[in-house]
Amino acid sequence: MPDRSSRSRTAQRASRHTPRRARPALTAAATGALAAAAVLAFSPTAQAADTLGGAAAQHGRYFGAAVAPHLGETDYESTLNREFSSVVAENAMKWDATEPSRGQFNFSGGDQLVAYAQQHGKFVRGHALVWHAQQPGWVQGLTGDNLRQAMRNHIAGVAGHYKGKIDSWDVVNEAFEWDGSRRQSNLQQQLGNGWIEDAFRAAKAADPKAKLCYNDYGTDGINAKSDAIYRMVKDFRARGVPLDCVGFQSHLASNSDLSTYRQNLQRFADLGVHVQITELDVGGSGAAQANVYRQVTQACVAIARCNGITVWGVTDKYSWRAQETPLPFNSSYQKKEAYGAVLAALNSAAS
Ligand code: XIL
Question: Could you name the active-site residues (predicted)?
């Protein structure tokens, strides 16, 4: 491993906000270098890091990417290896991929990604245990207690399989509407309001050490939706429901209003949970796009409980919003202005 990588690994371990890496990646050598690396990483004279993962590690944070099955492509894999310190499966750990028939689990895609992460010393985010979308057909027709049992069994099966290997799980994804009401999914209609806490309790039982997150989009400021999620998190914390983190997907545009972005993250952090930017991408190009990336990065760096940032893809080439060219690397894997803005924001001191 090049020097900068080992520095970033040890620097991340040095922070009390350190996310958990895939276990076999934690080497004795890394532990031995811990004290020296901590001094180096937090010294004002430390050299600026030249990768996103390395620069984020200076603040004890990860910088990750969503990964699709393109690891065989040389530029894809080398960009991922070099720049990112965390990975999440773009699709491979979702319900339709992991349990295509009831009780028949398929972990092939997820296992490949976890093995890659362990070989390369990267964190893994898990995404997503329960969601209204990308459910297998057999789930969509279930009612009442039958659906409740299927949900619990799915969480036990998937989170149990990856127990100890996942830094943070998106336990529940996208359960609220813009107006702050509960999304009228099959889960909500069949199981009633209690299904979200039920899912978190099942995840806690299956993998007690993973950080358990609620994840959503459209929560990029103080608004009716983020208000409702805030109330839920506050209530869960008060009642001891095991929720540790809130994911802000942050699917943005160059003209997104970010005037209350940081303030919104901060109010969640003030409830005692971690916050994470989980699916960042920004439609657009040039300075306008870079400016949004800068603001999001600065917000995470400024908030002690912000563990890290994940962009939703390695390259514009394979982005789910490819026509909007929303990522820091273009379709030829060249660094865009957005990349420079993120790296500079990570390399500047935390405020
Ligand atoms: C998207 C993937 O990027 C696509 O490949 C797939 O076809 C649909 O899902 N919010 C989420 C992610 O939580 O799982 C979604 O990912 C994007 C929106």
Answer: 279
For a substitution probing ligand 1, which of 279, 311, 315 has the most ligand atoms within 8 Å of its CB?
Answer: 279
Give per-residue pLDDT as tens, 99-138. 999 999 999 999 999 999 999 999 999 999 999 999 999 9
Which mutation among 168, 219, 251, 312 tests ligand 1's pocket best, with the greatest number of atoms within 8 A of CB? 312
Q: How many angstroms is it from 313 CA to the middle of ligand 1?
A: 10
Residues 6+ apart with CB under 8 A from 110: 89, 92, 93, 97, 98, 162
Question: Residue 281's closest CA among 292, 268, 265, 295?
Answer: 292
For the CA of 251, the closest atom of ligand 1 is 18
Spacing of C-alpha 241 from chain mean position: 21
Q: Does the pLDDT value for residue 49 go beyond 90? A: yes
Binding site membership of 320 for ligand 1 (Cβ less than 6 Å): yes
Cross-strand pairs, 281? 251
Pick from 37, 44, 27: nearest CA to 60: 37
pTM over 0.85: yes
pLDDT computed for residue 310 by the predictor: 99
Q: Whose CA is nearest to atom 12 of ligand 1?
A: 90
Q: For residue 26, what pLDDT is reported?
A: 35
What is the rounded CA–CA span in Å between residue 13 and residue 291?
Answer: 30
Residue 350: band (very low, low, confident or very high) from pLDDT cuts 50, 70, 90: very low
Contact 90 CB / ligand 1 (< 6 Å):
yes
Residue where the block lists tokens 């942050």: 250
In eight-state DSSP terms, residue 180 is S
State the pLDDT at residue 349.
62
322 CB near ligand 1 (under 6 Å): no
State the distance from the centre of ligand 1 to the C-alpha of 234, rounded, in angstroms: 27
Residues in the chain: 351
Asked whether the beta carbons of 162 and 114 are under 8 A apart, the reply is: yes
**Of 341, 339, 263, nearest in space to 299 by CA:** 263
Give me ligand 1 centre to Cα 112, in Å: 19
